[in-house]
Amino acid sequence: MNAFVYDLIKGSYGIRVTIFAVFILSAVNIIFAIMKTRKRNMYSYRIMYYIGALVFIVFNIFLFGYLSIVDRAHGFDFNQFMIYIFNSCTYFIIALLPLIFIFAVVIAISNIILIKKEGGGIRNLLGIGLALVLIGGTLIILFVSIFSPFDNRFEFVVETILFGLLSYFECIMIGTFIATFITHRSIPPRDRDYVIILGCGLREDGTPIPILKGRIDKALWFAKKQLKETGKDIVYVCSGGQGDDEIISEGESIRNYLVEKGVKEDKIIIEDKSTSTYENMLFSKEQIDKYQEENGISEEEKIAFSTTDYHVYRSGNIAYSIGVKALGMGSKTKRYFYINALIREFAANIKAQRVRHIINVIVIVALYAIFHIINYMYYNV
């Protein structure tokens, strides 16, 4: 009780509660933002940012609560607040380091298995590259912070900014992985008119590779389930152009597989010009519109799409970005391939949002610069 009274008299208790309340309200606000965004577009990149921010804020809620309990008998003023701001990202990185190390080991093992089964190549080494960047970057920054060759103040500025940026990208990575996991487990409502099957490669004889076969089988499973539950049939949109090493288009190969499985020709639309997910969605929508017009269908179409589990989130975002409100489902992929594929999706998301990331990096650096200027002018943290 004496410590509580001391806190109250000094004003420290009120400051701590205010900061803690701000963290809690921020977390609640982000949760509601995620729920609201999911209702409008469950594939929005905003969800990735929101989840990353929520992870960081929740960490700080526990960290600030712990530090407040441990240091309860001492005053808490703006000087201590500055110390906390400068060190929060450092604590975050250090706390994640064991998990990052375990993740890196898992990535390395899965990549070794992937290379043994499917051969080498830059794309199959992405996991190991990311693991080295995460662990190497963290260890280098920690080493610099402990054995810095710079002047103390300059080293402090560089250290806090680097930890801030590393925290940002680790939060984005976590947000991407969680958003990808959530979306690939979702199944569209059983009221779809069309299902777009995204092509992804053929064997030498023109038949689907296992990943593409999985996408087609997932679409067939959904169509069967929908027909059983609602009595509504579905039209398949076979999407994919012909690669330089392919004897037929992916769209034609998907169509052949569907026919072998007993699907009637009049329930199949072929799109055979696309070379990317963006074109898959765009050209498939054009074919659907054409089919609607030819068959005198005026009702707004309800579209599903079938791809591989790790690819649902980004595919859905691409679809919504061009006005195709399609809901996706994901076929399973091999475990050793899944992790490396997640990293590819993370890299693709970073590229797709590169302008926003650049802006965010500038904002982070600017905020740290402001805090350092305030600290230099008024405090000596």
Structure notes:
By secondary structure, the protein is an alpha/beta fold. Helix content is 69%, strand content 7%. It is built from 12 helices and 5 strands. The chain has helices spanning 2-10, 12-40, 45-70, 78-118, 126-146, 152-184, 210-230, 250-260, 277-294, 312-321, 335-352, 354-378; strands at residues 194-198, 235-239, 268-271, 303-308, 326-331. A 5-stranded parallel β-sheet has the order 3-2-1-4-5. The longest helix is centred in the N-terminal third of the chain and has 41 residues, at 78-118. The radius of gyration is 26 Å and the shape is elongated. The two termini are 31 Å apart.
Summarize the structure.
The protein has 381 residues and is α/β, with parallel strands linked by helices.
Q: Report low-confidence residues grouped into runs of 5 or more.
A: 4-10
Fraction of residues in β-strands: 5-15%
- Secondary-structure content class: alpha/beta
From the N-terminal CA to the C-terminal CA, the straight-line distance is 31 Å
**Quaternary status:** single chain
Would you spell out the secondary-structure blueprint of this structure?
Elements lengths: L1 H9 L1 H29 L4 H26 L7 H41 L7 H21 L5 H33 L9 E5 L11 H21 L4 E5 L10 H11 L7 E4 L5 H18 L8 E6 L3 H10 L4 E6 L3 H18 L1 H25 L3
Parallel strand pairs: 1-2, 1-4, 2-3, 4-5
